[in-house]
Amino acid sequence: MSPPAIAVAAVSKRYGRTLALDHIDFTVPQGEMFALLGPNGAGKTTLLHIMCTILAPDAGSVHLFGTDIAAHATRARRQMGVVFQEPSLDDRLTVWENLEFHGLVFGVPAALRRHRIAQMLELVELSDWRERLVRTLSSGMKRRLEIARALIHDSRLLFLDEPTVGLDAQSRERIWQYLARLRGERELTVLVTTHYIDEVDACDRVCVIDQGKILALDTPAALKSARGEQLLRVVVRTEADAEAIAAAYPEQTTRRGQELVIRSPGDVFADSFLALHGAKLRRLTVEEPSLESVFLALTGRGLRDQEASPRDRTLAFGKRGGEHTR
User: Fold this and answer.
1) Which of 148, 152, 168, 315 meets the CB 3.0–4.6 Å disulfide criterion with 284?
2) Max Cα–Cα distance, the chain, nearest Å
3) Residues in the chain where the model's pLDDT stays below 70
4) Cβ-proximal residues to 6 (8 Å cutoff; 6+ apart), any chain
5) How far apart are CA 196 and CA 272, in angstroms?
6) Which of these, 60, 155, 33, lies nearest to 105 by C-alpha position?
7) Cβ count within 10 A of residue 25
């Protein structure tokens, strides 16, 4: 039986008095798309840096394809490609030169190197830009180039740390399209860290992490089934209305100014809420169980602001209390 692509066992890391990671355990089978989902400061990047051999854990171990990364760091690095959160391209070089240099560092033979560079540039749709200086590329194109570079040495495992931060919605979508194509064309395990909830529904499994602890780990569907709740996303008319509703549902409500997110047991609650508080509302959006509601159920707070999905039902209220249009 093949070893897992990643095996993390009892990993802990402390920065002074701050416990960044607290006995983290999980395994990722070969070929899986695995997401670490959590807010900024949850410990995601620290954990990724440990798996990439950049940081050493205070306790615990990490094995990649059966290789102990502490004992055999160089061997482990040859099996991984990494796209860091911060840009790491040399913007004084061309697109081709960045890939050529990376291939040289990893000792990829010249003929194979040229073949892989051409192959990866075609995949990420940068073939026509191969002679352009990296400094002239858009942010989305640079991120695609970093993904191509991470795979030039035929890595079996791809680490991506917040790969779509700072990109527009179209560029974010294209990044995920390229990742899906990569997984379809080669045996590749992908671990991605993100705080964008809408991006992880396509992953095989999601590990919810906060304050250095794993709160839940399962498929997106299983997490939503076991932990997800319907959410009411409410925009109120006045500060007093926000305070009154938050006070009425203190255990269910997360407040962001005059917007409230209220965990709902189901449609009956939504109907009764509307009957009681319709006059106080400017807008009410009913969202079906999602990974955001999973995070709310686990932590009592939101992961990030996000727009309502197309499945959500929004009621926009007119000037008179209770008047609304669907």
Assistant:
1) 315
2) 73
3) 266-267, 301-326
4) 26, 27, 28, 34, 51, 62, 63, 64, 157, 189, 191
5) 31
6) 155
7) 12
